[in-house]
Amino acid sequence: MADILDRYDRIILQTLQENGRASNVELSEKANLSPPQCYRRVRRLEADGFIRGYMAQVAPAAIGLGVVAFVSLTLDREQFKKVRELEKVIRQFPEILECYAISGDFDYLLKVVATDLKSFSNFLSDRLMQVPGVSGVRSMICLEEIKQASALPVD
User: Fold this and answer.
1) Is the domain 60-141 a CATH 3.40.250.10 member?
2) Fold of 2-47
3) pTM for this structure?
């Protein structure tokens, strides 16, 4: 799909990644297009799935989420045939910000937030490890964020 992006689309995507609140006029000036042309391109990029959505990036610590952790999750091989059910449950936990199916020694890698270490421990023990099919977890507590999620390279 990336083959169908021309330089105008790439400028629009880069600009929106830098400032999701950019107005259509700002986008059209950056891309050197008329506002109606730019508007149509943005709507097409949204409809075609290049733009998944818009949201504010909230600082976790500012809202009381002092713990960020990465959790490696292993599935019980007997339950592997019910993996989609497990994924549905994982999607329902607001504490899990991201979830990736991975290769290697573990089956999933999760990014989890919690207010403190005790609440994180409770989440693991009382909720995540109680999900049918989960056979083990290994967690790594984030000590410091060096680089947060950033814009994708669209060049």
Assistant:
1) no
2) Arc Repressor Mutant, subunit A (1.10.10)
3) 0.85
